[in-house]
Amino acid sequence: MPSLLVVSGALAAVTSTIQIGTGVVLAPLHHPLRLAEDAATASLLSGGRLTLGLGLGWMGVEFEGLGADTRKRGRAMEEILGILPQAWSGEPFHHQGDVYRFPELAVRPVPSVPITVLVGGGAEPAIRRAARLADGIFSNATADRFLDQVGWVRDECERIGRDPAELQIHHYSVLLPGSSADEAWDHYAEHVWQMQWKYSDMEVSATRSGTPPTAPELTDDRRSKLRARSTFAGTGEEIVASLLEIKERAAVPVHFSARSYFPDLHYDDQFELMQQLAEGSRPAPVGNQSPTRQCRTLGRI
To answer: Which of 3, 50, 55, 190 would be 120's cystine partner, CB 3.0–4.6 Å?
Structure first.
């Protein structure tokens, strides 16, 4: 969905406690001053509950349509990550970069609390850029690749003299609960395949008219490759154990965000998925405390 900060403002208006985050705003498609204003406004509307997730983008047609240059997107992101904190300070500043230039000015409104900025991406340059300039990373990589990314964060922090504990490490996880891994995968495989295929078809469909195409058949070969790279499946307890293993190997705090929506998955199934994950992440009661008070959400593992 485009216009994520507009949606964030709408969510802020009808909620009061949940955290609201963008995953992700394609930063090089936005002027940094407008991005700063919109994020500050959404943050104020939410009472400081906004986390701003940013990404580079990759679809050429989007860049061409908005007059942006894909070849400069890395440099644009570097400059944007430097501009945003200055814009949110409320103090006058100016910028003369390779991509953006503007005279001395002050940006309004000013957020009431600092806005956390996470950078989504998988490539090493993007992860190292986040370690230098952002508040953390937002990854959906496989377990081994994710651990590589955590290593790049540590390396870059050591190189520039930054404490890696300052950064937030987030993983956007495809979690499929069921009575077993095989049962869960059988239930959700077509929906996961629809999601993966849609990303690959996105740039083609942006210039295509007529009836949207349907995904190709999920063959056995596609199924095995998809299962190998994209999911944690099993009982809630098994999924949590897998996530805890990753956290232990990463040796840093990791925030896990569970994907609970897939194409063509009925609302009732989405709700059941979230319930199963919540049950799986709830430890046994201790003493007189209720299970509810002890429930550890996946985002806090």
So the answer is: 55
